[in-house]
Amino acid sequence: MSTLKVDSIVDGGGSGAPTAPNGLTVGTTAIPTTGPLSNRNLIINGAMQVAQRGTSETGVTTSGYKNACDRYRCNGNNGTWTISQDTDAPEGFSNSFKMLLTATEVLGNIDYWAVEQKIEGQNLQHLKYGTASAQSVTLSFWVKSNVTGTYCANLYQDDGASNYPVTYTIDAADTWEYKTIVYDGNTVTSLDNDNASSLRATFFVVAGSDYTSGATGSRAAYANATFAAGHAVNVGSAVNNYWQITGVQLEVGDTATPFEHRSYGDELARCQRYYLDASDAYLFLDAYQTSGAYSSVYVAFPTTMRAAPSMFVSSTDSSNIQSFVGASVRTTGCRLEMRVSASGGRFYIAGGYYTADAEL
User: Torsion over CA of 251, 276, 91 and 141, rounded to 10 degrees?
Assistant: First the structure.
């Protein structure tokens, strides 16, 4: 048995796979022996396995959750992009999150484009922020782009509004590279113990000059200059430029451990706390009623959602229906209610389906 160590790479250099810190290798498998052996990764869907909304969306110009990998939110206002769950990935992974530029836009000083994941405060209490024992965290990931140079990854803290920008470098074009970044714990400002966003891991691909001029490598009160400090490339400068990422892990400590692979079912359940796609539910409601009457069916969500979700309800076929909506929506389920529009006769919903959105 031998002890292995991974250096903490603040600037993101290097392209080798991770090894086990303060751990063992059994055969060729690196096994950590300090810290938890499971549930290490604070990122959900780090291997980009789950894409409930769909695997690709074109013409993306605005912020929001897109038809690609669950839990990753596009944020920005520059360029036109195709966002996708891509099958190009480094060894040991099957998917990546990809942003491909399809139309350029002049880069203004307050323009940017990034992808981020927000994390609930109640899932972060073990970081001990706001105390002298505040824990460092390590962000590790695989990244690939045709645009080489210096990029910024900001660990933004919603509680107290602070930036923590650190840079990493893509050294070789069109090559998967492994990066790690260490962020010190916050001994001053705590993380709220609730279901709102407390930390955001934000990866920039475009950033105007107002966002890049500040200091890197330390936490600072939010200011434009430190939002993407040190970011020095513009993936939005030419059509067909791209940036993609996978194997994203955020964990306690100052050293990256091997990526925590979770089953598809486990990741799906975690994702469904925030977004649920029941487009294949194929619900059928059938009745005879007078005008204004209604019929309903209760549906239980497969997992308790973060908050009472907003509902989108529809069907593939219907007759004499005035409305078909989600009602009495709770974190655990809701009624799907159909209301008749005519007196007498049969009214029905066939192929009823819904989505539920409780994203941060």
Answer: -30
Could you tell me which of 358, 261, 322 has the C-alpha nearest to residue 39?
Answer: 261
272 membership: H or E segment, kind and range: helix 264-272
Query: At 300, which amino acid appears?
Result: A
Reference 258, options 91, 116, 128; nearest CA is 91
Beta bridge partners of 349: 285, 318
Looking at the chain, the whole-number percentage of residues with pLDDT higher than 90 is 78
Tokens of residue 73, six digits:
């939110």
pTM over 0.70: yes
Closest CA to 208 of 187, 221, 224, 195: 224
Q: Which domains does the chain have, with CATH numbers?
A: 24-271 (2.60.120.260), 274-357 (2.60.40)
Among the listed residues 74, 147, 153, 76, the one whose alpha carbon sits nearest the alpha carbon of residue 111: 76
- Number of CB atoms found within 10 A of residue 304's CB: 12
- 357 alpha-carbon distance from chain centroid: 14
Q: What residues contact residue 247 under an 8 Å CB cut-off, 6+ apart?
A: 46, 47, 90, 92, 93, 140, 141, 142, 178, 259
Cβ neighbours of 109 (radius 10 Å)? 12
Instruction: Classify 115 as helix, strand or coil.
Output: strand
CA–CA distance, 92 with 7 (Å, rounded to integer):
21
- Amino acid letter at 167? T
Q: How far apart are CA 192 and CA 227, in angstroms?
A: 22
pLDDT of residue 33: 57
| Tens digit of each residue's pLDDT (9 = 90 or more) over 175-215 | 999 999 999 999 999 999 999 999 999 999 999 999 999 99
